[in-house]
Specification:
Elements (H helix, E strand, L loop, with lengths): L10 H8 L4 H9 L1 H26 L10 E9 L3 E8 L4 E8 L11 H16 L11 E4 L2 E4 L1
Antiparallel strand pairs: 1-2, 2-3, 3-5, 4-5
Helix pairs in contact: 1-3
């Protein structure tokens, strides 16, 4: 790596300049091997982080077994849980089934706070009646994880 000079950018400035068309910034990046090397290292770090985030977003390969429901596919994955398209087998009713997953990952244990927050969501959701809000039909715990449909 070349020598960093006073004219070189900080890491945040360097990342910003890489995507700008400002002639002075681009000229410095073209002429400075130190900044080019640092920028390559920063972009490599970003790629590694993106790979890790994609893996987390994919979640577990297996679909959990929720007694009484047939999960047909994932609809949405968020910070608190995963929503599946499912069929309630007893009634053949199509439902959205939300399964809470621990913030630390699919194999971690839920904290008491996470569990209470989810239980409160189920309780409040079951009381609401509005055309823009889904009805809560059922809830439970499967494989140690709370869910509701």
């Amino acid at each position: 790596m070349g020598r960093v000079t006073r004219a070189c950018f900080s890491d945040p400035e360097l990342e910003e300049r890489a995507f700008e068309s400002e002639p002075a910034g681009q000229a410095h990046l073209q002429a400075c091997p130190a900044c080019r090397a640092r920028l390559a290292a920063l972009q490599g770090r970003d790629e590694e982080l993106l790979r890790e985030l994609r893996q987390v977003a994919r979640g577990p390969a297996e679909v959990p077994c929720i007694p009484g429901y047939r999960l047909e596919g994932e609809l949405f994955r968020g910070g608190q849980g995963v929503v599946y398209r499912a069929v309630q087998e007893a009634t053949s009713r199509l439902v959205a089934l939300k399964l809470l997953h621990p913030a630390a990952g699919p194999r971690a244990t839920l904290s008491a706070r996470e569990r209470r927050r989810f239980e409160r969501e189920v309780e409040l959701g079951s009381r609401l009646t509005h055309p823009g809000i889904v009805t809560v039909f059922d809830s439970g715990v499967a494989e140690g994880l709370p869910w509701y449909a």
